[in-house]
Design brief:
Layout lengths: L5 E5 L2 E3 L10 H12 L4 E5 L18 E3 L14 E3 L3 H9 L6 E5 L6 H14 L4 E5 L1 H5 L1 H7 L5 E3 L4 H12 L29 E4 L1 E2 L10 H4 L4 E2 L2 H13 L4 E5 L11 H9 L6 E3 L4 E2 L5 H10 L4 E6 L3 H6 L6 H14 L6 E7 L6 H13 L3 E6 L7 H6 L28 H11 L7
Parallel strand pairs: 1-3, 1-6, 6-7, 7-8, 9-12, 12-13, 14-15, 15-16, 16-17
Antiparallel strand pairs: 2-5, 4-5, 10-11
Helix pairs in contact: 2-3, 8-9, 9-10, 13-15
The structure holds cobalamin (B12).
Cobalamin (B12) binds next to helix 1, strand 6, strand 7, helix 4 and helix 6.
């Protein structure tokens, strides 16, 4: 039998707000690359098209979008609802212009985006009645039972904790032996994700580790990855050189604890990037831990190409700080900002993430954190809390939310503000967003 022909699809999404903040379907591109490595031909459809005319010099940009009616279960949310990415009609004509593949892979990233994935699976099923459909990603990993029910057209729904089941499925369905079946427990053996399938590569996200040594109570990483695995600095450097040879100049670090044990990883890596005969730009949307920033680190950020540094603060309330993992104190944070300032980073180049909308949080806690960050000459950036299944905070507070967050993942979207209460209303949140951007009125 011939090697199965594969089509990978990054589906469109429905949301109240979405923006390409250096996002990429990295898991799907990695799986596509592994299959190519096994000799399977792979094609790719990326439904999450960015409006290129509006792409920023740093690589971010708005997705093409269209306002659509709200589904019944979200009708009480007073915000416009949109589909982000290409339209179902366009996808339909793309699919019908293709020959039927043997295997279609669809990714499902944020839990509350599953509706787009389900719709796209149905369209794929209509277009290719004989193809096998496999859906994987973060939603099937965090909400497996729900995903099985929502993805009726899928022949296999696979969580990231059981990638072996995916390889077995291919071998059994297509009687095709795969010689290379990596389990993501050694990142250095993985082939580079298949970014080339996207055509235009505005930036390359580089996965430098999986898992995390910290145990923040709001984060699902420790559930998804029981132990932390990290690449060697040499392998990351080789990947940067590989994409740079293909014209890519912007790189985005995907890592939950990039600076952890920096003498063994971040420092040697950034030193070797600084020594490259060409300059690249590096972005870190996941934020780094302020406790690990010292003078040498700040200097390496500058020399390796970090145009800006995003730092996690979360809260200045010691109680909130300790309940969310106790990673950063005021003292360590102030030291880090001072060091970055001395290295030359201005206020606009130091974005500080503050968690807003935590269960029982008072809006004044967020205001104090914004004032504090501004007083240190850095830029506050609100990260709205998302309740995520299999996290300690989710389990503790799931019944306190004003929407049934454990019954339907659509309510896990931070845009619906699940933990609004009289001490932190939607008006408070909207005011804080304006206040953080300095466009707010007095209060
Ligand atoms: C990088 C990252 C981002 C990036 C880009 C994300 C993106 N792709 O769009 C940025 C910075 C933009 C981001 C933003 C946010 N993120 Co984020 N992010 C991550 C992070 C750190 C890594 C994701 C990743 O690429 N992993 C690496 C790849 C290789 O793994 P993977 O995608 O799971 O793929 C594996 C499998 O799932 C599988 N797979 C994937 N697809 C398919 C398909 C098939 C067919 C098969 C067989 C297999 C398969 O293959 C891979 C290997 O096993 C994760 C945490 C984590 N460690 O996973 C959080 C995470 C996904 N983010 C999370 C959150 C909360 C957010 C924000 C809401 C944060 C905020 N408050 O602002 C925003 C919202 C984003 C938005 N609206 O667009 C949550 C999930 C929330 C949810 N309900 O789903 C996570 C899990 C972190 C957490 N706190 O627990 N994020």
């Amino acid at each position: 039998m011939h090697a199965p022909r594969v089509l990978a699809v990054n589906p469109y999404i429905y949301d109240f707000a979405a923006y390409n903040f250096w996002s990429s379907p990295l898991g799907l591109l990695s799986i596509a690359s592994i299959l190519r490595h096994n000799g399977l031909p792979v094609e790719f459809i990326d439904c999450m098209r960015v409006n290129e005319a509006k792409r920023k010099p740093d690589g971010r940009g708005p997705f093409v979008k269209e306002k659509v009616p709200k589904p019944e279960i979200l009708k009480n949310v007073q915000k416009p609802f949109r589909r982000y990415g290409i339209s179902p009609d366009e996808l339909s004509s793309i699919l019908s212009a293709r020959e039927e593949p043997d295997l279609v892979l669809i990714t499902s990233i944020m839990t509350y985006w599953y509706r787009g994935t389900a719709e796209v699976s149905e369209m794929v099923r209509r277009a290719f009645p004989r193809a096998k459909i496999v859906v994987g990603g973060i939603y099937p990993t965090l909400c497996y039972d729900e995903a099985i029910l929502n993805f009726k057209e899928a022949d296999l729904v696979v969580p990231s904790t059981d990638i072996g089941a995916f390889y077995r499925f291919i071998e059994e369905e297509f009687h095709h032996t795969l010689s290379f079946k990596p389990l993501f427990d050694d990142l250095d053996v993985l082939p580079y994700p298949a970014h080339d399938l996207l055509g235009n590569i505005p930036f390359v996200p580089v996965l430098t580790s999986l898992g995390c040594v910290f145990r923040c109570t709001y984060c699902a990483t420790p559930y998804m990855y029981k132990k932390m695995v990290r690449r060697s600095p040499g392998s990351v450097l080789d990947e940067i050189a590989h994409w740079h040879d293909r014209g890519v100049g912007r790189f985005v670090v995907y890592d939950d604890s990039f600076l952890y044990s920096s003498e063994n990883f971040a420092k040697p890596l950034l030193r070797s990037i600084a020594r490259l005969p060409y300059r690249i730009r590096i972005y870190n949307p996941n934020a780094v831990n302020a406790a690990f920033i010292d003078g040498e680190m700040a200097d390496l950020f500058v020399r390796s190409g970090f145009r800006e540094v995003r730092i996690g603060l979360e809260s200045i309330d010691p109680l909130v700080q300790s309940s969310t993992g106790g990673k950063v104190t005021r003292a360590t944070f102030e030291r880090a900002v001072k060091i970055l300032k001395e290295a030359g980073y201005g206020p606009e180049q130091m974005s500080v993430y503050i968690l807003a909308g935590l269960p029982r949080q008072d809006w004044r806690d967020v205001k104090r954190a914004i004032d504090y960050v501004r007083s240190l000459d850095a830029t506050p950036y609100l990260a709205e809390y998302t309740p995520i299944p299999h996290t300690p905070m989710f389990d503790e507070f799931k019944d306190l939310a004003r929407f049934p967050v454990s019954a339907d993942a659509v309510y896990q979207n931070n845009a619906v503000f699940p933990y609004a209460w009289e001490g932190f209303t939607e008006d408070d949140l909207n005011w804080l967003k304006r206040y953080a951007k300095k466009t707010g009125d007095g209060r």
